[in-house]
Amino acid sequence: MKRLTSILAFVLVASLTVFAQQYAVKFATIAPEGSTWMNVMREYDAAIRKESGGRMGFKIYAGGVQGDEKTVLRKIRVGQLHSGGFTGVGMGEIAPRVRILDSPFLVRNEDEIDMLYKEFGKDFEQAFEEGGYVVLGWAEVGFVHVFASSPIRKSEDLKGIKMWIWEGDPIAETAFRTLGINPIPLSVTDVMTSLQTGLIDAFYTTPYAAIALQWYARVKYMVDVPLADAAGSVLISKKYYDQLPKDLQEILMRNGRLYISKLTQMSRKDNRDAVAELKKRGITLLPVSDKDVLEYVEVGNRSRRMLAGRLYSEDLLNKVEKAITEYRKARRGSK
Question: How far, in Å, are 78, 85, 322 from residue 73 at the CA level?
Fold first, then answer.
């Protein structure tokens, strides 16, 4: 009798657990399991499960198992997924003007990045809503560097390399073509294989991502000047979000802002630490002369102008560049 009672109790608890979670938010990302990105997402998931009393939680698909970012967006549109972690390429499919954040040589440091989100974040979030998505948090990926199998000591050295660009990324394509490079477009999921076969011998990513994705093992050098700061975000389908009860929307949004902000700060530290780790693992950092830095900055200026009217308006570009200029002047004046 005791055994039967125990079994019935177990079945009852299991049934209540199953029925308690009314909303399973299907989330996908290319970020690998075990990375800081995924560890924080697991914390986010645990927090919303606890606060909602088990009524809501994420069903997480990591490591690109649901495909690259464009594939994830297609699956969200048909309801197979609800949410995702995106970098510039995915975000640009929804709200092209947000790609201005990824512009080459636009920002110089993290303070300037924070200023841009403070000044323009609401406008970008509105652009996502117009495209059918709600921003749960801005997940900055970090400063992007060029990695290569052969040394790049001056801008001319770039012209002899087989540079990967993310397929469908107009920002990277325009920047590299302005430098005189004919890049090789591939899905992000094809990069490792292409490095192994020699189809490409150079790529751009953050120091932490180079380690997390194991791409660094196929190259020898990292250019010690960042190409751009890579933006990121955690988005959810507005259609799905609007179906959630108001209390669950509040729990999801509040915790999203909290944990994704934490992710950005951890990512910044990870990227700083990753530079030292890359050197330990045999990657040589290549300094860039002041002359070449000025040339790269000019390439960034030309690239941004070429993309005005295609991704974002010239008016937005002027406002962003003006905000950065004024911020720098204010910072210099305060010292």
Answer: 9, 10, 33
